[in-house]
Amino acid sequence: MAKQRADVAIIMGSQSDWATMKHAADTLAALGVPYDSRIVSAHRTPQRLYEFAHGAKAEGFKVIIAGAGGAAHLPGMTAAMTALPVFGVPVESKALSGQDSLLSIVQMPGGIPVGTLAIGKPGAINAALLAAAVLALGDDALAGRLEAWRAEQTAKVAETPSDPA
Ligand code: RP5
Which GO terms describe its molecular function (predicted)? Predict the structure, then answer.
């Protein structure tokens, strides 16, 4: 059976990043955006990274979400090898709570952009929402689903606080 076309590639430096990056995957799934998730390490599998980044456009990906922690070179190195939009998610590290990941990802030199999100789960969710927003520019049905997702989120916010159950 032919593999389903995926618009978004979710890549991460390690299996240990999946607990965070799964939130990006779940958010894309909720929006009906096809994605593929892979472990690609800038340090431990550099050849896999090279092949992925150089082949990403030909594979049909339109947006890449890259999550990594610590010395988080994955998003930047990916962006160095493809002109596709790359959103970087700083994964929360044990040693420095993700501040290392954030600074590694955000301080790119001019000319090689990585759209950097918040540390951890919020960043993973928002990377997926941004990826969907980019794709929605050319997909009215997805734009409608994104709008509905936002409206549902708004409707869930109570007007007054309540005690926990
Ligand atoms: C990075 O090192 C990964 O992105 C991960 O966040 C971090 C730790 O990796 P493991 O030692 O848990 O595999 O490359």
Answer: 5-(carboxyamino)imidazole ribonucleotide mutase activity
Q: How far is CA 52 from CA 2, 24, 96, 98, in A?
A: 20, 19, 29, 25
Range of the domain at 141: 8-155
State the pTM of this model: 0.96
Q: Is 66 in the pocket of ligand 1 (CB under 6 A)?
A: no
Report the CATH number that the domain containing residue 124 is assigned in CATH: 3.40.50.1970
Q: What is the 44 CA–ligand 1 centroid distance (Å)?
A: 10
The annotation status of 162 as a binding-site residue, yes or no, is no
To the nearest 5 percent, what fractions of the chain are helix, strand and coil?
45, 15, 40
pLDDT at 1 over 60: no
